[in-house]
Task: inverse folding
């Protein structure tokens, strides 16, 4: 199963970098994105553009219905997205219940059918917002489950949950993406973009992205636009 990969592609910087890393390894890439009622749905347009630009064999968009009102500020427009609050130790209100568990489960099912043994996810445990489903312990546990609970895993065609950015700073990710030739203008990171898809500049995602470009010594063309 090692010749192809499923890449969870949100349309953001990290997932786009993962797609390019998979391609660099010579893997045939299938991209998987999710419409879960997120207020920053512009990311789905960016995911389509990234998948097309960088030669994904196939790009699937799956619709998911998450828990109702109050589940997350990313899915409930009545909940404010935190601004200028980077560095808090609490799990932020932008956490979406079991999001990565559901994303990875869909990727696992597709991977088993498509013969794709590698599943790439842009999780990060250094410069990140504190989501529990981005931690290495969670990803290791999911990989064990994947190989216990699938026909492919039981028959020895092992799955690998790949998180190549897990222990990288955002600056390191920006530099690596630049080396891989990522068009940063295609990506979006903001949780609450404006009507012309302009970033708010104050949510966690915007602050982390700005920090990464600043520390990498590069200019973010998406922010300039």
Result:
């Amino acid at each position: 199963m090692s010749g192809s990969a499923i890449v969870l592609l949100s349309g953001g910087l990290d997932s786009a970098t993962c797609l390019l890393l998979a391609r660099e390894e010579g893997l045939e890439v299938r991209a998987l994105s999710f419409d879960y009622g997120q207020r920053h749905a512009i990311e789905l347009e960016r995911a389509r553009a990234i998948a097309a630009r960088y030669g994904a064999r196939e790009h699937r968009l799956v619709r998911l219905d998450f828990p109702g009102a109050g589940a997350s500020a990313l899915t409930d427009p009545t909940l404010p997205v935190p601004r200028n609050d980077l560095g808090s130790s609490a799990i932020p209100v932008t956490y979406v219940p079991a999001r990565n568990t559901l994303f990875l489960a869909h990727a696992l099912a597709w991977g088993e059918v498509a013969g794709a043994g590698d599943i790439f996810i842009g999780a990060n445990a250094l410069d990140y917002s504190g989501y529990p489903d981005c931690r290495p312990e969670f990803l290791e546990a999911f990989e064990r489950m994947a190989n216990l609970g699938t026909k492919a895993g039981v028959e020895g065609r092992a799955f690998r949950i790949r998180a190549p950015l897990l222990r990288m700073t955002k600056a390191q990710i920006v530099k690596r993406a630049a080396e891989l030739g990522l068009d940063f203008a295609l990506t979006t990171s903001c949780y609450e973009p404006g009507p012309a898809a302009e970033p708010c500049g104050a949510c966690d995602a915007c602050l982390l992205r700005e920090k990464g470009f600043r520390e990498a010594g590069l200019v973010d063309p998406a922010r300039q636009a």
